[in-house]
Write a structure and sequence with these properties.
Length: 123
């Protein structure tokens, strides 16, 4: 059996929720999780490492995503949006999802690092 879970990420700066004078930079991120394998699996846990541009890191762990523990059959995808607030106009996130295959095997799916950046800050 093959566990092939693919992660796609889109990010967006949220100027209406940000306050640069107060070192508050809000971003949304939309994650699409694709099951490209040949067996179903349920997302049970998430682990995020959020890195601010000043080097400070935060870790977030929790059950599921946005209050759900989605089950993805082969060929299915699950898309959700969430948000993060940074102290700096540029930062990054990375982490992993813990999944449990239909046969009971638990496995981790790495979430590759992605950048959160206020428009115009990076060239």
């Amino acid at each position: 059996m093959s566990q092939r879970i693919r992660i796609e990420v889109e990010t967006r700066y949220l100027p209406e929720q940000s306050d640069p004078a107060d070192q508050r930079y809000a971003f949304s991120y939309t994650i699409t999780i694709h099951n490209d394998g040949d067996a179903g699996a349920r997302l049970t846990q998430r682990h995020w490492i959020i890195t601010h541009g000043n080097g400070r890191t935060q870790e977030v762990r929790g059950e599921g995503v946005v209050g759900e523990t989605p089950h993805l059959k082969p060929g299915q995808g699950f898309r959700y949006s969430s948000a993060a607030v940074l102290e700096t106009p540029v930062g990054a996130m990375q982490g992993s999802y813990q999944m449990v295959a239909d046969d009971g095997d638990a496995f981790d799916v790495p979430i590759p690092p992605f950048r959160l950046a206020m428009p115009g800050v990076l060239h």
